[in-house]
Structures
1.
Amino acid sequence: MVLQDLGRRINAAVSDLTRAPNLDEKALDGMIREIVSALQDADVNSRLVSHLRKSIKATVNLKDLSPGINKKRLIQKTVFDELVKLVDPHAEPFRPKKGKPNVIMFVGLQGAGKTTTCTKLARHYQTRGFKACLVCADTFRAGAFDQLKQNATKARIPYFGSLTSTDPAAVAAEGVAKFRKERFEIIIVDTSGRHRQEKDLFDEMTQIQRAVRPDQTIMVLDATIGQQAEAQSKAFKETADYGAIIITKTDGHASGGGAISAVAATHTPIVFIGTGEHMLDLERFAPQPFVSKLLGMGDMQGLVEH
Amino acid sequence: ISGLFRNVVGGKVLTKSDLDKPIKGMEEHLLKKNVAREAAVRLCESVEKELIGPFATKPRPYVISIVGVNGVGKSTNLSKLAFFLLQNNFSLLIAACDTFRSGAVEQLRVHARNLKELSEREHLGVVELYERGYGKDAANIAKDAIAYAAQQAFDVVLIDTAGRRHNDTRLMSSLDKFAQFAKPDKILMVGEALVGTDSVAQARAFNQAFGKGRRLDGFIISKCDTVGDMVGSLVSMVHATGIPVVFLGVGQHYGDLRTLNVTWAVQMLMS
Ligand SMILES: Nc1nc2c(ncn2[C@@H]2O[C@H](COP(=O)(O)OP(=O)(O)OP(=O)(O)O)[C@@H](O)[C@H]2O)c(=O)[nH]1
Ligand SMILES: Nc1nc2c(ncn2[C@@H]2O[C@H](COP(=O)(O)OP(=O)(O)OP(=O)(O)O)[C@@H](O)[C@H]2O)c(=O)[nH]1
Ligand SMILES: [Mg+2]
Ligand SMILES: [Mg+2]
């Protein structure tokens, strides 16, 4: 699971501290140091880590705390809040409306899991009563259309694509126009993988976006990504202005801290996480329950409310 | 002893299976005569070697298999490797042993077709695809592909495999069987430059997945063009295993494969 190790280590650091006989400055520093290295090992962006360290130090100021305050609770709550901040940009994700076409375009780095996830998402909406379909605007990768076609067929979702065209914007426009006319409610457009270092590929993304005018653009990020997460997700944000993130491959062993750093870098919410290679391996994401679960803190909800 | 070999027809080119029985008999005979086992086995082996015709056993093609986690660039870099070998005039059979991921077979079909056209145009080596569709056991297909390649005298078999998470014990343990069936001469793992600290666990897990005494032979580090100077995953993977990097992937086209030294890479792969 994503951040599982991180959760365990942070948890241990916090309970070690709160169990210590002398809750002094030195013990607090020790805990913070352990949390910091846990975050670094989890690929969390280095700048975010140092910010988080300062925040904890500032909030849990042992000298100035009035004697009546429950220090243990305060420390737990501060760590929890800081972690929630890391995954909660306080931005409302897009919600598709029934009875009208909602065009959703997928973007992301090569091999992140876009094609797999767009079928999962189409199926997710389909089972919730939306009329959903898929458009393949990846005319570059070998076998891309076959991949989408096979997935769509398995999930019984209508699809559109071309085996011969080399113009993704044209294919996307044609597919979306066709499905709009047929009154589909969720039209998901899959695009090929790209990265910020290739300007042509970024221009192509803009062209596709202009051609299909998406209501929502989603960036797909691989949970294993390291320190490149910030630069790449920012560049995609500037060019495609995506409104949501899906993190894939969270069933792996990776900590996911890189992908999660993209949230803070771009102020964009995570909406789903991918938990496997199969069609049903998609879960909704919500920051607070996620962090509670991560830290094994069932009672955290109570703390957060006051 | 001559009696043991009476049924072996004269004039015919002998194969190992023709000789299995008489050689076994000879070994037993020598043991009975108080020849030590070690010496008896040695003697039998050299007799066998003398008798088997030079063309009796078809030379086994050189087998290279590509492994790694999901989406890192296995199939693409396999195709780049194919292009590299074609430029060095080898004849290749590409074996589509990812029988799981949708479109995986078609992806290789497109690459094989492109490479074939390119080879014909530029008079490079010969390339063909071996495929058996989806759902079947990868290790069996690999074995059949190698037998086919031996029969058709291909120089090299390149085996594509399905992506798998290194913490998925079921999928990882199937690599053991795969190695036993395909007996790859080289196992190359594709790791991507984009990956973070997970690279260490990935490299270690794959390095240990092929059963006793079998390790990875090299890494292909893909997507180096996407990370600028952040090539840390390369360092981590080599550090974790001591296995060398053979190639760097620097883009999505056939030519986007780099090696420090071509002669070195060819030797590394083919020796
Ligand atoms: N374990 C696991 N594998 C996943 C998940 N999502 C996708 N994959 C796998 O990741 C690999 C790449 O997925 P794709 O959907 O082809 O990725 P993509 O972003 O469309 O790739 P390009 O189009 O080449 O850029 C495939 O092997 C998928 O099966 C997930 O949540 N968990
Ligand atoms: N920029 C860049 N992209 C690459 C490189 N190598 C592969 N890719 C891209 O990465 C994506 C995934 O490549 P694949 O070869 O399908 O990966 P795979 O490991 O076979 O994926 P699965 O079989 O699904 O596990 C494709 O879009 C490739 O074009 C590289 O060196 N640089
Ligand atoms: Mg794709
Ligand atoms: Mg592949």
2.
Amino acid sequence: MKVVVVQQDLVTAWGRGMEACWAGLLSGSPAFTEVTRFSTKAFQAHLAAQVPGLPEGGDASRVMRMLTPLLAPLAGTLPEGTLILLATTTGEVDLLEREMMSGAPSEDQSRLDVLLGRIQSTLGVTGPGRIISAACASSSVAIAQGAALIASGERDSVLVVACDAVTEFVYAGFASLMALDPEGARPFDKARKGLTVGEAAGTVWLMSEDRARRENRPSLGEVAGWGMSCDANHMTGPSRDGGGLVRAIEKALKRADLRPGNIGSVSAHGTGTLYNDSMELKAFQTVFSEKRVPVYSVKGSLGHTMGATGLIEMMVALKSMEQQVVPPSANLHEVDPEAVGWVSQHAVKVDGMNAVLSTNSGFGGVNAALVLKS
Amino acid sequence: MSAVSILGKGWINGTGWGRVVQGQQGTYGEGVGIQPWKDPELFPVPVKNMGRFDTVARMTLCACALAMRDAGWELGDGVKRDVGLIGTNEDGCLAANKAYFQDYLSGGRVLARANLFVYTLPSSPLAEAAIHFGFQGPMLYSGQPGGGLDDLLRTAVMMIDRGDASGMLAVKADAREAVAVVLGRIK
């Protein structure tokens, strides 16, 4: 059973919707701004990719302020039995921050199941829901799980909702790992020093091709293959040889019944950390040893949006196929010698691109790969 | 190809532990049983940095070791396995989140502790288990309101059936109790 995307929406540091995001990506510029919501004085970096124009004040968490405009148009439109998969790492952790900083008694409002309940309530559904969390591969793993359920015939409609926010909680944590680049993330750059924390939210509605056709819904692309793996190596660092990512990619290609030569471009995780980007390049050089493919990262533009990143990157990859254009790796000044011939500061026109790969990796050595077809 | 079966099941709580298929159990009372994390049969190779693990991560590792031993798997052989891990619990990582942020606040909001930050992901205890036992299959946290081990087992069986991994461990681990099930095909 083929799995197709019938609807998608997102909000990123470039604002609401794919058109704004795509234009921002093609500009090759970072959407980074100074963090003012909390003090970053004690940290090595002060930039983040923050969603502009969110309503301030009130009790709602930052992720719900991002999500509500995306979910509201879907309210009442989801068929009964649609499975809601929530992909996130820290969800509404800003509620916990508020609670702990004010000394108020704990109401545990930052629990992920509470957030799932809020999402279901905004959508007006009472049906099944699950939280999927796999570090920074959370949303690509959620897409994989949703697609697998549809492909096996167990479900025919799955809505994947992904979100994470820039919070003091997360920013201080990445600062403690010395993982932030003071000049902003520069994926695949020779001088890269780390990531820039970003925030985003998105929805991707997956459906069986049969149901989509029956209901005259447009197909925005197909989730043709998926693969997941774990390096089983280190908690915060990837395996140096990229072997874990290679296994995930090979599984995804096999499921899609495609060969590496069929892939037109690769949306890399590309965080801008020394080890991640190097590991990925080794993996891509292994898989695509016969023919190089254009590789890009959106994180020099959109920041690292953590649990949302896989979903946002999947939507960008679909847009890339629609436009037959590989977006530039933003904020890239001097290409790392390992990446020469693979990544570019410029958009690249690629004709006949009808299958692409999108990969994510995260803490604990988790890897996920998605193969998407137009 | 044989059907996917439960090959082993282990549990641990505040007073004891058990291996269900082998029908073994023990308590922590004096002279009655050995604590799993001190049992060289379960951990012939010491767990690196176990001292800095949070409680849920320790419980996860113990439950996994008990279940694997129950299934007759070799432990500590250093072999990487095509085995996946899927986990759940009641609270995600709420306790770890509180511990990390309280520590950060107590320090004057200047420096967070990386050792506490790494457990602020629901999947972190599973990652520690994957690293120690060499599990190279999929690894994910799958929380479901009102859901328990049954939902997890169903998903794990599906994942083996569709070739995501040749075996899976399904783990429900909280700070007070943990249970792990080894699933795979009987050879």
